Amino acid sequence: MRKTVNQKAWFFILPVLVLVAFNAILPLMTVVNYSVQETFGNNEFFWAGLIWFEQVISSPRFHDSLIRQLIFTFSILAIEIPLGVIIALAMPRKGMWVSVCLVLMALPLLIPWNVVGAMWNIFALPDIGLMGYTLNAIGFDFNFTRQIEDAWFTLLLMDVWHWTSLVVLLAYAGLVSIPDAYYQAARIDGASSWAIFRYIQLPKMKRVLTIAVLLRFMDSFNIYTEPFVLTGGGPGNSTTLLSIDLVKIALGQFDLGPAAAMSLIYFLIILLLSWVFYTLMMRNEE
């Protein structure tokens, strides 16, 4: 008998396709269009070729922003991934405290990004902020609005507080999925805590940690609201990450061509590094 194919299912996914096309594909095509054209006003555009890409790639300003972005991203990955795993290992697996811990871990993730930046801005103020005032009271010369090291410390601390919970929840999900039979066999063999972590827990968390690394990498590379609200890219340009610099070029200077070219290069860097992360972490998976 000939199998009947029901095409009505396309009507269910059609709204999603339209939404994705409107929110992603069309703006991307607009950016590509601006990146290869020049305008002198009056809505008149002229073909410029790859001149904007060459200008961005050779720009010391772009190099400095990229270096700051890489330092920030790899710093928070080096802190949040191990810290999230450690907290997940310390959380209870059974009992009433499981729900309490999960709720506490989820709370920072529920706070809007602009509110996080405003909270930490007030919290770290050297005169009235609890953290800033306390650090100065005990002898530290802390002022994140004037000193570069203090600004970076506050920025990293804010991101660790906000996003480590995501790593914790993902790592905890991987831990609770491990059958008790593995632990029973390890206890019978007299395995140490380190051996259990290395040969049982860490391999079972590999996939969720891959997701955690990719999510945190992509999000930290795209971060804008929190550092902009906290420091505004200052003092000077010391915390001007790629996203902040891109907004300054596009909206502050209204250089649409260079901004469009920079955003495409930005996108390709994220895509390339995400592929590298995924390839390295999933190596020997088969």
If you had to describe this structure to a student in words, what would you say it looks like?
The chain has 13 helices and 2 strands. It is mainly alpha-helical and about 290 residues long. The protein has a single domain (about 60-280), classed as MetI-like fold (Orthogonal Bundle), CATH 1.10.3720.10. The longest helix has about 30 residues, at about 60-90. The model has no long low-confidence stretch (mean pLDDT about 90).
CATH superfamily: MetI-like
CATH topology: MetI-like fold
**Biggest sheet record:** 2 strands, antiparallel
- CATH C-level name: Mainly Alpha
What spatial order of strands do you see in the largest sheet?
A: 1-2
The rounded Rg comes to 24 Å
Write the H/E string, N to C.
Answer: HEEHHHHHHHHHHHH
CATH architecture: Orthogonal Bundle
Beta-strand segment tally: 2
Structural class: mainly alpha
Termini gap: 39 Å
Helical stretch tally: 13
Low-confidence stretches: none
| Form type | globular
